[in-house]
Amino acid sequence: GWAVWGWAVLTGDHCLRLRFDEKTKHWKRSTFEAVKSKGSTDGRFIPTNEEFSMDDTWNLILNYMESGSFVAASGGKDMGKNIDAGGGANAGGLNGEQLNDSAGLVGTHAYSILDARELGLIPGISIGGGLLGQTRLIRLRNPWGKYEWKGPWSDGSKEWDENPIIKMRLRPKDEDDGTFWMPWDQFEAAGFHNIDICDRTTTKDLR
């Protein structure tokens, strides 16, 4: 099922999806609407005709994360096919999921987005639009609690030692717990083409 369907039913809050369009290279926004029929609840996505660049989408994620919204990401069965992460081939998962062992990603599978940071490589600089040597990192979690991203900024990768300021700020844990950081500039290329959001504009009930 869809993460937004569960969120809408459980919270009653506004839910939406950003879907990457391969032709325009923009993210298109749709609103999720739960529909009751014959004693059951279904759902549909209604396009809003809004489109966002990668930069705009990044800023949207930052804003929703700051407001305490639920955010998740998913892709198709070809997750990781455009990423050169060190060899390996696709193999089927136990429940029919498509596993990309070289990238450490699972196709047709929802990941929680736990955090998003824009950090400067220079001390004291950590805001703005990617200027002055800043890097954008997004933290995701595989709900399996294992099987993680193997590309840049993954657990134990060289990028952490090459960027000690960022390592000090984020304090990454090299553990097989399903959580990992990855660079925003490889998020779409890795196959994440859907971003689902439950807009928690009131955050008191989350505390």
TrEMBL record:
On whether Translocase is a keyword of this UniProt record, the answer is no
Question: SUPFAM superfamilies from the xrefs?
Answer: Cysteine proteinases
The residue ranges of the Calpain catalytic domain are: 1-201
One matching Pfam family is Peptidase_C2
Got a GO cellular component term for this one?
cytoplasm
What keyword terms does UniProt attach to this protein? Answer: Hydrolase, Protease, Thiol protease
Q: Name one GO biological process term.
A: proteolysis
Q: What is the top-level taxon of the source organism?
A: Eukaryota
Q: Which GO terms describe its molecular function?
A: calcium-dependent cysteine-type endopeptidase activity
Where does the UniProt annotation place the signal sequence?
Answer: none
What positions constitute the catalytic site? 109, 142
Q: Which family does it belong to?
A: Belongs to the peptidase C2 family.
Q: What is this protein called?
A: Calpain catalytic domain-containing protein
